[in-house]
Amino acid sequence: MPCLLLGLLLAGATCAQPTEGEALRNWFDDPFLALSRDQAGCPEPAGPRVSEAERRTQAHRRAEKGTTCWLAGEPDCAQSSAYRYDAGIAEALRAAPSLGATLAGSSVWITVQGRVVYAEGCVRDGAQAAALERRLRALPHVQQVIPLLRLQAGQRPPYRVFPGR
Question: 119: domain range?
Fold first, then answer.
């Protein structure tokens, strides 16, 4: 049974890949912003931009994830959807003046999806990555931070790159 489930998951992931020349879009209007662009040669992440096939694959999962916490009546879930917090989290990021020093010499983009903050890009070193992660976790309503950061120039980025950039 586990092999069958794994096979189905892999098949779904393969089928959801964009085809050559297919445009990627931010179908769900997830907040996506560049916090810094100081490191030359850092590839721009695809962020929340996905193909039409990926959008269809994500739709059900997003609907379920968005309401689970609220339906369970958890105290930290006043909004009926986790995605309703995302704009406020992004606004808090834009307004955080102290992030500037944390980001010096980096190129970092942020995607906010269902109270999860994805940090993608390039930083100087592990200490800078850790400091950024701590700052992001401290923001109100953030449930999780996923740092996908390249620590050394020349390494392959640990995130999907936006085609043509």
Answer: 29-150
In a domain, 35, yes or no: yes
CA–CA separation, 83 vs 137, rounded Å? 17
Residue 127 lies in a domain: yes
Task: Say how many domains are in the chain.
Answer: 1
Query: In a 10 Å sphere around its CB, with 0-12 CB exposed, 13-18 middle and 19+ buried, how is residue 35 labelled?
Result: buried
In the prediction, which pLDDT does 118 show? Answer: 98
Pairing of strands 116-122, 144-150: parallel
Q: Per-residue pLDDT tens for 99-150?
A: 888 899 999 999 999 999 999 999 999 999 999 999 999 999 999 999 999 9
With respect to residue 18, please indicate whether it lies within any of the assigned structural domains: no
